TrEMBL record:
One of the record's GO molecular function terms: ornithine carbamoyltransferase activity
The protein's name in its UniProt record: N-succinylornithine carbamoyltransferase
Assembly and oligomerization: Homotrimer.
UniProt: carbamoyl phosphate binding residues: 46-49, 74, 109, 146-149, 271-272, 299
Domain of life: Bacteria
Organism: Salinimicrobium profundisediminis
Gene: argF'
Pathway(s) of this molecule: Amino-acid biosynthesis; L-arginine biosynthesis
Amino acid sequence: MKNYISLSDIENLDLAIAEGLQLKNNNTVANVGKGKTLGMLFFNPSLRTRLSTEKAAKLLGMEVMVMNADKDGWALEFEDGAIMNSNKAEHIKEAAAVLSQYCDIIAVRAFPGLEDKAKDEEDLVMKSFKKYATVPVVNLESATGHPLQALTDAMTITELQKTKKPKVVLTWAPHPRALPQSVPNSFVEVMQRMDVEFVIANPPGYDLNPQVKKDTKVFHNQDEALKDADFVYVKNWSSYENYGKILSEDSSWTFSEQKVQLTNDAKVMHCLPVRRNVVIDDAVLDSPNSVVIQQAGNRTYAAQVVLKRLLENLE
Ligand code: CP
């Protein structure tokens, strides 16, 4: 693996999942990262991604440098040929080249603006780091995807599944803020690569990017989709069709105890942070059905697999 920008950078998903679970169960501390440095740049807030990736790097023997790039760094220009006479003080060409001398791997978080679909779909920040850095780049959640979260989710389902081919439902739930489609996009991509019966439930107007969704079945009736589910992944996203807009805050889509009753005693997942009693009710999050804490714990081992593979490929 040369970079981890999207899930497609993992060739053999089953092997990556198995390696992650092995790292977790053997509590393996490898020395492959000794003398190497991970630099993490955050253009947006984070709790899990920041700390689990730092922990993963340290378990591999790496040094870690973290920067809140939105607050502490120079404002970066990403457009080629820009006349930099406004507020952007540094071009990504210099920034990425300089960082590549300080770091052996660069990891970046940069959310979409959710105003200009075409611009967000370019994933300009992540692509520019990949283009101008001379070291591997890791996506810590970009405008269009969150592949570290997706690998974690695949590991969590694998370790908890009781049947060979479980039914997995990704369901939209309400939220007061407009959120990116990055997490659901990557979750859809990873489920399409696993041996699961996978469906999506969302209100009309919330269908995900057709190029991501492909032929995955979409229900506009949540109750119908939840029938016999073994895993339910609850997540809000803003509209893709009416880009970045909140079209509904319908609380009948909030994931409640009554919704769990419709499933096959499903394990309930969420990437976190979660707004209690808006996205998922207390009664579910505080019940044995919820696996959100275990899921967040797996973030460390997913990050460890990715960093280990990148380190093993350094020249
Ligand atoms: N799930 C996730 O990415 O969490 P953070 O935003 O806290 O990193």
